[in-house]
Amino acid sequence: MASSSASITSKKSFICLLLLLAAAPFPTSQAGKIAIYWGQNGNEGTLADTCASGDYGYVLLSFLCSFGNGQTPQLNLAGHCDPYSNGCTHLSSDIKSCQAKGIKVLLSIGGAAGSYILTSRDDARQVATYIWNNYLGGQSSKRPLGDAVLDGVDFDIEGGSPDHYDDLANYLSGYSKQGKKVYLTAAPQCPYPDAWMGKALDTGLFDNVWVQFYNNPPCQFSDKQHLGDLMDAWKQWTKSTKAGKIFLGLPAAPDAAGSGYIPPGELRYIVLPRVQESSKYGGVMLWSKYYDDQSGYSKSILPDV
């Protein structure tokens, strides 16, 4: 039998080991965050309720769908409110409520059905100035969302021309020098490099990139026997992209996209363990809040994100 002093030492060592284990992070639990697109369906609940759910780390207000080439930028929040009659200024309190919970709220520009193009570097500068004054830390008498200061800008560029988005990113990032950091994020398609955002992403100015692994059969998940297509693209993005974190972008329900939906169980037990092997893994992006409400997708995957 061990001496009493040896027994005490052994017990102390065991207690220390338990404390170390308790303090150690578990990489498969809350290692990442969920980003959600909100704004394109009036039946998806309020912005305040979206943030109060506790499911999301980023909310992307979609979309500033028209800008560039001298046109007046236009915000479209579908059935939520009408920005042209000052009907969206009440969202200011919702935005502040989200931010008070530590949730980043960004303006998403572009979208699949927008009318946008940047025709020159000066055009990009003018768009950046407009966004700064109307949505970020600048001043304007006609701020569509009231006096709340958004955390940054999300680039969801899916048409037009790829030119000058690198200039836009540079101009927007430059405003960080005036105080509050301007976060930049992007939602490229999974074929690498992205046809629209390649040059902009090469600037290295983007904090998060949520790659759309859907509506792109060559690089999306089809079934567990064909995980390689997604993983090959994921490795290319995490290896080559100059960004802080890379997110796995997915539809939140089968009818949220034409293809690329991953059932929650297969995401949790097959896909996430693989993509989380990368130090650049940041979480999951979902399209969209409306479809997430229908499916409960975020709540079913959150423990493993």
Automatic annotation (TrEMBL):
Keyword Metal-binding tagged: no
SUPFAM superfamilies: (Trans)glycosidases
GO biological process, one term: polysaccharide catabolic process
The enzyme's E.C. designation: 3.2.1.14
Catalytic activity: Random endo-hydrolysis of N-acetyl-beta-D-glucosaminide (1->4)-beta-linkages in chitin and chitodextrins
First-level EC class: hydrolase
Short name of one Pfam family: Glyco_hydro_18
PROSITE patterns: GH18_1, GH18_2
GO cellular component: a single term: extracellular region
Alphabetical list of InterPro entries matching this protein: Cts1-like, GH, Glyco_hydro18_cat, Glyco_hydro_18_chit_AS, Glycosyl_Hydrlase18_Chitinase
Signal peptide feature range: 1-31
Family: Belongs to the glycosyl hydrolase 18 family.
Phylogenetic lineage: Eukaryota, Viridiplantae, Streptophyta, Embryophyta, Tracheophyta
Organism: Dendrobium catenatum
Single GO molecular function: endochitinase activity
Record-annotated GH18 domain positions: 32-305
Keywords: Carbohydrate metabolism, Chitin degradation, Disulfide bond, Glycosidase, Hydrolase, Polysaccharide degradation, Signal
Record-linked CDD domains: GH18_hevamine_XipI_class_III
Identification of the protein by name: chitinase
